[in-house]
Every structure is written in structure tokens, then in C-alpha cells.
Amino acid sequence: MNDQPVTMLTPDDLEGYLRARGIAGEVLRLDVPTPTVVAAARAVGVTPERIVKTVVFMVQGEPMLVIASGTAKVDTRALARHLGVSRKRIRIARPDEVLAATGYPVGAVPPLGHRQPLPTLLDESVLQHEMVYGGGGAEQALLKIAPRALLQAVRPSVVAVQAPAEGWFS
Prior knowledge:
About 25% of the residues lie in helices and about 25% in strands. It is an alpha/beta fold.
């Protein structure tokens, strides 16, 4: 394993990524931290359903992103089924793995603009909204983007990975 420190990306890096690729999205710099879905929704004056989370899972040792509604729970059974692997081969990434794979810290990971392209799944529920807000690269930044722009930029697999109400992973 490489012991070199990982350089953290910033909201400026995310803005540069959007600009360089002509992606219609806006990094909002906020006066308040947004460590939770509720705090993020409150900060931009929207319902929590319009906040998306980008979760990094390790699947058979390799990072994979799941973009889901912030209020949803990711069903690892559905994820395993979709990927054709045992649920035991999937786990949430550790903070150091998230940083190494994306360049961003846990809690600020945007749905795009990572250090390296990563396989990505997008929960179909995200497409119900005209505009969503996700991690913006720092605790006091959010990315405002239309799900359609996200689809074009990331080209994720659109699947249902939201757990039933009694779901078991958030």
C-alpha cells in the first residue's frame, strides 16, 4: 500500500472540473457547515429529498460510487444482486479509502469530479427532481446540479438501490 499522503481536492477543483467539461452545475459556498442531509437541506432551503449523497462502497476490494437520495438507505442486498456478487463482498469504504479514491473527504464527496473515474450507480429516485444538491468538495459547499446533467456527465447505471422503509444501511 502507498504511504504517500493523499492531496485533498477542494471546491475550486470541482468548479474547474465542471468548467473544463462544460457541465451545467454550480458549487455553492455556504456560511454554515452541511454535515447532514437535514443541515444541507436547511442551508439551501429545500426538502431533504432533494439532497443526494455520494457513498463509496468497496466491492471485492475496488471502489464504487452510489449516488442516492439523502433520505434513502442503500440496500446492500439490492446492490449485491445488481453487481452479481455476495453481499459479504461489499462494504462501506473507510474514510482513507474514500479520500484515496475520490480526492474528497467523507461528508463532502461530490457525485462527480473525482480523482479518478469510478464505476457509479445512481438510484432511480434521484431522477424525480429537476434539481438536486450534493457534496461540493468541502463541509461548507454543495453542488447544485440537474439530475439529467449528472446522467450525461457521469453516465452511471441507473438502478433501484433504495432500501425498503425498514432498510438497513444509510
